[in-house]
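<context>
A single protein, sequence plus fold
<entry> Chain with its tokenised backbone below
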Amino acid sequence: MYGRYTQDLGTFAKDEAARLRLQQGHGEGGSPRPRRPSELLEYTQGRCAPCRVCGLQCQRFLISKVGEDWVFLILLGLVMALVSWAMDFAIATCLQAQKWMYGGLDTNVLLQYLAWVTYPTVLITFSAGFTQILAPQAVGSGIPEMKTILRGVVLKEYLTFKTFVAKVIGLTCALGSGMPLGKEGPFVHIASMCAALLSRFLSLFGGFYENEARNIEMLAAACAVGVGCCFAAPIGGVLFSIEVTSTFFAVRNYWRGFFAATFSAFIFRVLAVWNKDEGTSSGVGGTGVPLPGSAHPATPPETITALFKTRFRLDFPFDLQELPAFAVIGIASGFGGALFVYLNRKIVQFMRRQKSINRFLMKKRLLFPALVTLLISTLTFPPGFGQFMAGQLTQKDTLVTLFDNQTWAKQGFGDEFEYLGILEAWRHPRSNVFVTLVVFILMKFWMSALATTIPVPCGAFMPVFVIAGAAFGRLVGESMAAWFPDGIHTDSNTYRIVPGGYAVVGAAALSGAVTHTVSTAVIVFELTGQISHILPVMIAVILANAVAQSLQPSLYDSIIRIKKLPYLPELGWGHHEKYNVRVEDIMVRDIRYVTLNCKYRDLQHVLHSTKMKSLPLVESAESMILLGSIERAQLGALLGHQLSPQRRLQALRQKALPEDAHQLSNASIRFQISTEASSVPPSRAASRKPLKPALKRVPSSLAETSPAGTTDHAGIALKSLFCANTAAEPTEVSGR
């Protein structure tokens, strides 16, 4: 009834390939094709002939296997793991150098301030200048551009080796300065560039890597690798990349993403163990001192653990009466995420709308990042205002302390808890921990929104995750612990509040609200190594997404709108009636176009009468069949080249040719439109349905060209504009 194959498709393909190889091995007459004498002398003569033949076969086998997907994914994961580990090592060295400079000048506060401010300013300025000179495309996150590329739009110079170098070096300097910047978005861009460069390299072994669809699949897997090796979270990385970069994700790419991300995360953590920095988790501070309430020893075992491993209670992690507090965190994080996106966009728009400021900063490109860095560094100076916001802590140390299980203030006073190690940064003799957390959240919130506008390679996920989300959750957890100092009584058992769990919930909720993703919950579980708070985290993340999506677009969609990238974001809540809007309702119909037989005067008239950046190319004014488009700048350059001295000299030479050749050169030359129909028999091509016009027939200056019967003397044709030497091209005289 439905029909069936007479033979299995895979078996048929193998048999057909074998038959074609056999035909290629024999000539058309059926006789074997003789091999070249050099091959015979090299491989079949001498005592080592069998070994040489075997070596040649092994070489061909290895070359054929290099093109396999799993080899490509292993190389991608290995390269990204090495890049991530090397960058983390360089960033940690830069941050340690800043601490060393600050600690070595403790006898003079003025010198401490100069060292504290000058060091990040120099790094940020170098990052901005280096990126601007080498590859301006490396500025920013990279996720908005990858969303656009995965939609099929070609962005020039975004996946080149030059951009890769600028992104890696610029991001290392930016994060090494200690500014509230992230690396998650740039790592997605770096992984995509690695995949593109590997595809170009492996295309030497097999042409299938030149396929556009295959490259898109590898870029989708590379986005997962970027998140996986950044957080050592392969599962969350795959899910996050799907949510952020793809509206349509092929199921066949799942194994590619999981395989490459898992391999990359494994190598990244193995390198961390080998480098003896695996033990920096929530139980061990940066100085090796165990934090209170943790079960970590001072010297951790050499094994692979979570990046920020926590030690929350497993038998009773939270009480059901705490769920309303977790829901409040989710709702508040939704409003906070929308406010962050709004603030970030308004800062950029304010800088662009102020014409005088914009022109000044365009001339002094390094002044804006230097001023922003100077302002933030001054406010975070530890002996100054930074003492009220733990200014001396890095992002990693901040997250380590916020995930601590011990309650810092049982009754709301900071001196009731014995601070050890890096926890000392949260203690102030004249204020309690609540004041410190509130000041930290408020100041770091707008600092992060401002810092992410600096023209350097940077992301916004980690500042939102660490600074605002985890700190806000910690504030709610400390408040709950102060309201219930003896814990919540359940069945004659008392379980104390764990503020670190609230910090985990807040980090996942706010980062999910800013990015409009739910996979941040999975990333949090892989970062902490525990899923004890899976229910509160999911509740908070879903509520935060519901609130944020109803108020603002995601941070990446907002950047897409700011940069005016060719991407159509999803419609928000309350805009479902816009799904009924058709393309014909918003398209421009009365447009200028270029035909195949238009003259030089017509092209000049089109360029002067319209300001469109791209002009449609149609077959003729009668058929209006759309053939493609040409950029306005490219068309102007071609017209300028048409009247260049070289072209005039060529015209003078043509006048000196014989009469027959002179007539041929004056004849109008049209495009040779090569389609698939040209390879089929004439009868089949004639039976095809006529093409429908893609543009509406409207009055235009080009529509008044000579009719089809009088195109023998059409003048200069468009083909001659595109080719400098028309004599070398196959031509077609219109008078055929």
User: Anything to note?
Assistant: The mean pLDDT is 75. The CA atoms of residues 63 and 399 lie 46 Å apart.
